[in-house]
Amino acid sequence: xxxxxxxxxxxxxxxxxxxxxxxxxxxxxxxxxxxxxxxxxxxxxxxxxxxxxxxxxxxxxxxxxxxxxxxxxxxxxxxxxxxxxxxxxxxxxxxxxxxxxxxxxxxxxxxxxxxxxxxxxxxxxxxxxxxxxxxxxxxxxxxxxxxxxxxxxxxxxxxxxxxxxxxxxxxxxxxxxxxxxxxxxxxxxxxxxxxxxxxxxxxxxxxxxxxxxxxxxxxxxxxxxxxxxxxxxxxxxxx
Length: 239
Description:
By secondary structure, this protein is mainly alpha-helical. It is built from 7 helices and 5 strands, in the order αααααβββαββα. The protein has helices at residues 7-25, 32-51, 57-69, 79-88, 95-109, 147-161, 199-220, and strands at 115-117, 131-133, 139-141, 179-184, 190-196. The longest helix has 22 residues, at 199-220. 26% of the residues are buried.
């Protein structure tokens, strides 16, 4: 067997995608934040298909974040999301989780700051693994509340509904990590926590993930194009 050198292919792949990222960064106009977010998550999606071509969408997207993003908070559990679930599901199986989550969220609500970093979310190891299907048909595990999984859900909102779930304002767009915006009413009572993934965070995440994917391809002498080039026909089986 002859081992082919794919270094030139990898360099072309790297150059091509970096030029596309640069174009995303330069988007301006009234809807630039929404458009950038859509393109950043689409960019991550395309990378995941290149590395994990045989896996389903969510699995490959989440696995790529776990393997290549180096995002330190990807395994943190979203406290507000988990709090909402244990509130609507009365099953005693969740009693211990409920006792853990509820007082922590109450302390968050009492704080004067309206922004809370996801660095304050609990680590995966802090909460016992559980899985339940209740009478509403909800079937979730603790993994679904990880930020790596929630970012995939954001991807779905952006791509399928043209919505980001929450919008950052002004300087908050430049934050390097996601955060919760505590929305309040006129009488200063908290209404809800909105999870926001800032534009700058998504920019940094895509850049770092691309860098690590390219290094992986170089180390393994892997040609990225068989799973990146769409082919001449829109029907995959014809290519």
